[in-house]
């Protein structure tokens, strides 16, 4: 391993941690000053900012004639966000879930996945469908900010900290956010570059690198931000970042990419038959898990992480046409799949029971 590659690797990690720290600090202070909840900041500014790498990759792919890569990038990132990031954060510390996520944001995340599948059925997401997706994001963002400020005024609830909304406070923390986002994007790029070079030196194929390191690399800002937010106790930002990023990825990234591609975005058949349904399934799974106790427990975090490991192995074996792929696929479908479905069915039953008890009170 050369010294330069090692410096890129270490520098990337330092930039990710530093960028996440600045982004969370600036975003939480802006939230307090504007009377907007940390959850809404996580769903908007933080989520949109940490999804910048996905936006850059997808737009570049669309403009260079690799439109199908833009779709694959969004699908892979959304699966990673829920299964790995949310799973890792919950495994580290159980996450308390806001009731707003259950009532509004998770259903919208599920709806975005359904809408993406609907638009993809003909194998193409057109310019007009992209415009519709982007318009939904604009309406959703405006509604979130309006609702949060209205709720804050009506409840007169005390913030965790009182911050006066002065020009100095706003400008200072906007600078923190901008620098934080810049460090996150730079750190992610350095880390991916170094990790890719290391993988190539070990003889790992470009296909496997693309399916693993590069796909995960564009989500490194979300990893750093959500994990640091969990450690600092800003768990609304941690969960809001994941849910908001998934919503943003579909509505903004796919919307803009398809609007900039004259022929629209092509959707590969493999994505339509396997990865897109999995993306929808992970979004749907969040709802009952969030409802039961309004928290994500450690064992549920481990379940998410385990599922992502199985999915990654599936991708690698399929891409490399490994001799054991069919056996592995059968094991996942006929053994692991039923266990996961049974577990989610039990959680869903508990969620329905909890809703009924709540309504009866």
């Amino acid at each position: 391993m050369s010294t330069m590659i090692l410096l890129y690797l270490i520098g990337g990690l330092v930039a990710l941690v530093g960028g996440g720290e600045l982004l969370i600090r600036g975003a939480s202070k802006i939230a307090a000053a504007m009377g907007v909840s940390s959850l809404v900041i996580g769903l908007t500014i933080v989520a949109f900012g940490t999804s910048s790498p996905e936006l850059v990759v997808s737009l570049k792919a669309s403009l260079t004639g690799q439109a199908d890569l833009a779709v694959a990038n969004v699908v892979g990132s959304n699966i990673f966000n829920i299964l790995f990031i949310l799973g890792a954060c919950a495994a580290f510390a159980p996450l308390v879930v806001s009731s707003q996520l259950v009532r509004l944001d998770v259903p919208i995340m599920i709806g975005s996945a359904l809408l993406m599948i609907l638009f993809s059925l003909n194998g193409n997401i057109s310019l007009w469908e992209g415009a519709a997706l982007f318009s939904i994001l604009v309406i959703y963002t405006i509604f979130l900010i309006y609702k949060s400020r209205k709720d804050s005024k009506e409840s007169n609830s005390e913030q965790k900290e009182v911050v006066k909304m002065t020009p100095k406070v706003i400008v200072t923390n906007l600078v923190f956010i901008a620098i934080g986002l810049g460090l996150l994007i730079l750190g992610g790029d350095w880390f991916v570059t170094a990790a890719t070079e290391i993988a190539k030196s070990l003889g790992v194929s470009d296909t496997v690198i693309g399916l693993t390191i590069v796909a995960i690399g564009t989500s490194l800002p979300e990893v750093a931000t959500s994990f640091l937010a969990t450690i600092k106790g800003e768990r609304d930002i941690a969960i809001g970042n994941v849910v908001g990023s998934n919503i943003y990825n579909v509505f903004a990234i796919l919307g803009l990419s398809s609007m900039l591609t004259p022929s629209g975005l092509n959707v590969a058949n493999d994505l339509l038959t396997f990865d897109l349904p999995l993306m929808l399934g992970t979004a749907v799974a969040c709802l009952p898990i969030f409802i039961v106790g309004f928290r994500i427990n450690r064992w549920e975090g481990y379940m998410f992480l385990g599922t992502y490991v199985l999915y990654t192995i599936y991708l690698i074996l399929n891409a490399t046409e490994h001799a054991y792929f069919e056996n592995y696929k059968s094991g996942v479908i006929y053994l692991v799949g039923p266990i996961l479905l049974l577990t989610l069915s039990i959680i869903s039953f508990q969620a329905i029971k909890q809703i009924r008890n709540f309504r009866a009170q």
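Residues 3-360 form a domain with the A middle domain of Talin 1 fold (CATH 1.20.1420.30). The mean pLDDT is 83.
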